[in-house]
Amino acid sequence: MHVLIALGANLLHKGVSPHETLVQALHDIEIEGFSMMQCSRHFQTPAFPVGSGPDYVNAAAHLQIAGSPTPEQVYARLAKIESAHGRERVQRWGGRTLDIDLLSMDDRIAPDAATFLHWANLESAAQRLTAPDHMIVPHPRLHERAFVLVPLLDIAPEWRHPVYGQTVRQMHDALPKIERDSVVPLTA
């Protein structure tokens, strides 16, 4: 099974920089049983929402995992890595020592298209106050976030969103230029 993830960090953990945390987390992902197919460059991105903290270092990765795990099983393995890097869930959209988002699992829609669309269309103010109580795949906001789409463009430009039918390149190009330009590569 092919899995796309997004990684981000903007806080030090035990003196380790966000950039180095992403490097270590990618190594830990392989130890956790995922095969690393490809990883994007690292990017500096403004905190989301704007002004909520220091800039982030973001990346995306294409993984492969054997079998047919559920989204919850995949996320449990990723959450274990977050926790090992000091992730605490104190505030929604708060600063993070490490954040790993499960973006997609092949062309799976889970739990179903109606639930996906409910969360994808939820007003921004409501998003801040509530979170789903189960995994939603694909990630319900990936199509509108430059800090996800710019790194994904490095590794999966032709991946097609199973609900919207658009490729990463199309979703990226639909974002306002100012948002795309705010995601700056840290490496060539």
List the helices and strands and how they pair.
Elements lengths: L1 E8 L8 H14 L3 E5 L3 E3 L10 E9 L6 H14 L14 E7 L7 H8 L3 H6 L16 H10 L12 H7 L2 H5 L2 E2 L3
Antiparallel strand pairs: 1-4, 1-5, 2-4, 3-4, 3-6
Helix pairs in contact: 5-6
Structure overview:
This protein is an alpha+beta fold and 188 residues long. The chain has helices at 18-31, 71-84, 113-120, 124-129, 146-155, 168-174, 177-181, and strands spanning 2-9, 35-39, 43-45, 56-64, 99-105, 184-185. Strands 1, 2, 3, 4, 5 and 6 form a 6-stranded antiparallel β-sheet that branches. It starts with a strand and ends with a strand.
The total strand number stands at 6
CATH topology: Alpha-Beta Plaits
Main CATH class: Alpha Beta
State Rg: 15 Å
Please describe the biggest sheet, giving its number of strands, its sense, and whether it closes into a barrel. 6 strands, antiparallel
Q: How would you summarize what this structure contains?
A:
The protein is an alpha+beta fold and 188 residues long. 34% of the residues lie in helices and 18% in strands.
